[in-house]
Write a structure and sequence with these properties.
The protein is globular, with a radius of gyration of 19 Å. The chain has a five-stranded mixed sheet. α5 packs across α7. It has one domain (31-230): Aspartate Aminotransferase, domain 1, CATH 3.90.1150.10. Helices cover 47% and strands 9% of the residues. The chain has 231 residues and is α+β, with helices and mostly antiparallel strands. It has helices spanning 15-28, 34-45, 47-67, 85-91, 106-116, 146-152, 168-179, 191-202, 213-218, 221-227; strands at 71-75, 98-103, 121-122, 132-134, 159-162. The longest helix has 21 residues, at 47-67.
Length: 231
């Protein structure tokens, strides 16, 4: 939980819904294995600390991005410019660690930024201790039609950022140099190395049974392209 190494959940709702779910669980099963339960228990211990850092760091980074001349738009409810900012203030104690943004240079700018950034990994996950970036048009929303993507505001150049718990200033400094368009000086890695890195980031664990990234990539040819941006 929060360490990208477990898939678990809970059902919360009215009593009639819980009764139906319980009936299904009694027939089909739904208990976590002991190792997954251990990982969940471990993650809950630091949940409050991690969420606090997610909130504070993301808000500071969102302000930085909004003021940067290379950025055309930042989508984050913690910003006063967000259309639902006041509502988010009434409902929540924080604004979360997830945001998205676009550069004036569109796809070219997004690709340049993701190549140049040194601290975040390129992977379509969120909510973990490590900072991740991805282009939804190539990963999570690659199956949408251009019309549907446009309706949802998902352009080809949109970058989704999941802020981890690294030092906020370290992330800002890294993003600042990445926005200058300086590609990282590293050797290209082959597809097997890409899969190993992505599996590590997403927490593939043979014991807990989390789906390996290789299976996720095979479901979408476009998804593979996003992982090739790691190098």
């Amino acid at each position: 939980m929060g360490h990208s190494d477990i898939v678990a959940g809970a059902v919360i709702g009215k009593s009639d819904l819980i009764e139906k779910v319980t009936h299904k669980l009694n027939h089909l099963g739904g208990s976590l294995d002991p190792h997954a339960a251990f990982l969940l228990h471990r993650g809950i211990k630091t949940l409050a600390l991690r969420v606090k850092q997610h909130n504070e760091s993301a808000l500071e980074i969102a302000h930085f991005l909004e003021k940067h001349p290379a950025i055309s738009k930042v989508n984050y409810p913690g910003l006063e410019s967000h259309p639902n900012h006041e509502r988010a203030k009434r409902l929540f104690d924080g604004f979360g660690g997830i945001m998205s943004f676009e550069l004036h240079d569109g796809v070219k700018g997004a690709e340049s930024f993701m190549r140049a950034a040194r601290l975040p990994a390129v992977a379509p996950s969120l909510g973990g201790v490590e900072t991740l970036v991805t282009r939804p048009s190539l990963t999570s929303h690659s199956g949408l039609s251009p019309e549907d993507s446009g309706t949802l505001g998902i352009s080809d150049g949109l970058i989704r950022l999941s802020v981890g718990i690294e030092a906020t200033q370290d992330l800002i400094e890294d993003f600042e140099q990445a926005l200058e368009g300086n590609p990282r000086e590293s050797q290209a890695i082959d597809s097997r190395q890409e899969l190993r890195l992505a599996n590590r980031v997403l927490g593939f664990n043979r014991t807990s049974g989390t789906m390996p990234v290789q299976l996720m990539l095979e479901s979408s040819n476009r998804g593979m392209e996003s992982y090739r941006e790691i190098s």
